[in-house]
Amino acid sequence: MGTAVLLAAAGVSRAYGERVALRTVRLDVARGELVALMGPNGSGKSTLLRIAAGRDRPDTGTVLLDGAPMAENDPRVRARVAVVADTPSWYPDLTVRQHLELVAVGHGADRGRIDAVLRELRLEAHGGSVPGALSSGQLQSLLLAAALIRPRDLLVLDEPEQRLDPGARRRLADVVRAEGARGTAVLYATHHRELALAAHRVVLMEDGAVVADGPADEVLAREEA
């Protein structure tokens, strides 16, 4: 795990009308660090992820990527941050392989990695399939594959285990660990203990605030006690 801070969020708050989604949150993520956000629905995890990825702006506080302000439309951010969001989207007329080729061309990535990513996510038999022919779990794997094709220093995942069966969730945990080993920072929200244990740290959220932040096994043990 790296030690240099890649993502730094300080004093971040966000409200939507009268609903307060985040309450003065601080979060640092180092290069190569795996950080899992946990907490009940409505605790602020998705809002924090959107802000961390530059897809939403905080009402107060700052979010920095390598010391510079985070903004989704900044070419520097687009070149370094890959996201699997909570609102999936795809092109209904493009095959799985065509999706990945489009992402690779758009981001100047190595198209030669497409076969390896398809194998890693068990999609090699579905490269010629359109989204409508895929199961819900395979669609989720397609979204993750599109993120893994891109160049990235930071990977942001919002409940990436959605619609995955237990075997696919175990493979996802392996993917997360491999990303960290390559030096990619991964910030992700999850409800699954197995996936949370793949992280170096678990950040527990409740009512828009961080209520625990520490080594994954220690935070999860306290929650289960």
UniProtKB/TrEMBL annotation:
Keyword annotations: ATP-binding, Nucleotide-binding, Transport
The ABC transporter domain, residue ranges: 7-225
Keyword Glycosyltransferase in record: no
Keyword Oxidoreductase assigned: no
Similarity section: Belongs to the ABC transporter superfamily.
PANTHER family on file: ABC TRANSPORTER, ATP-BINDING PROTEIN
Protein name (database record): ABC transporter ATP-binding protein
Species for this entry: Streptomyces chilikensis
